[in-house]
Amino acid sequence: LLIHNTDDGIVYAAILAGSNVCTNIVNYLYAQKMVRFRVQRGISFVGHYRYTKWFFIQSVALTLFSNMDITMLGFLGDQVQTGNYEAAVKIKTLLSALVSSLGNLFLPRLSQFIKEEKMDAYWRTIHKSLSYNSFISIPLIGFFLLESNEVIALLCGGKYLYAGDMMKILVFTVYIIGISTVTGIQILLSMNKERNLLFSSVGG
User: Fold this and answer.
1) Is the pLDDT of residue 99 over 90?
2) What local confidence, expressed as pLDDT, does residue 56 receive?
3) pLDDT, tens digit, 9 for 90 and up, residues 18-32
């Protein structure tokens, strides 16, 4: 709605930064209703670092290979190719977030099932998550195979029509990303296998 030409770069940056800042402020205010924040001294971070370092390294690896495709295309192609590809990737990323968002919601429950050794309930939840992934992603794939050009024209404008053809290829990764959310975040993290998840990310 607000970005129309190359002169709107400042507005674009403000939207990206502002959305992150506002989200964190709202989270902090809401968390105060449940958690009491106070400064403590003499806390040892060594024990926490041992576990969080795997999340940090994985985050770096994910950021690198999530942006590597656009960076490589920028070197190998021209602005038109990069712009069309980036438009398709942004829509694919939005769809992937919709499909994989359930993974983060199920993780605390799955971890609790592991702790309480309720494996039947654990695998039932995993099955529900896989069913949800298929229920959401397969119709999305079908829709974008038929209507990707129209969606791109509506969201991005007529200059990005090549992005519609790219979207028809990229949309299949929505289902694959949903599956990897289940196998990676839900299964490996709930079983305290952060290192395995890191190795799979780096390998990918």
Assistant:
1) no
2) 83
3) 999 999 999 999 998
Could you give the CA distance from residue 135 to residue 153 in angstroms, rounded to a whole number?
Answer: 26
DSSP secondary structure of 3-63: --SGGGHHHHHHHHHHHHHHHHHHHHHHHTTT------SS---HHHHHHHHHHHHHHHHHH
Reported as half-sphere exposure (CB side, CA atoms, 13 A), residue 147 has a value of 9
- Residue found by looking up tokens 């990764």 in the block: 173
Q: What is the pTM of this model?
A: 0.75
Dihedral, CA of residue 158, residue 159, residue 160 and residue 161, to nearest 10? 60
Q: Residue 120 is encoded by which pair of tokens?
A: 């039947």
Look at the block and give the residue holding tokens 């390294």.
Answer: 57
32 Ramachandran zone, left/alpha/beta (phi>0; psi -120 to 50): alpha
Task: Report pLDDT digits (tens) over 136-177.
Answer: 999 999 999 999 989 888 888 778 878 889 999 999 999 998
At position 1, the amino acid (one-letter code) is: L
In DSSP notation, 138-160 reads: HHHHHHHHHHHHHHHHHHH-GGG
What dihedral angle (degrees, nearest 10) is formed by the CA atoms of 9, 12, 17, 21? 150
- By the 10 Å C-beta count (0-12 exposed, 13-18 middle, 19+ buried), 88 is classed as buried
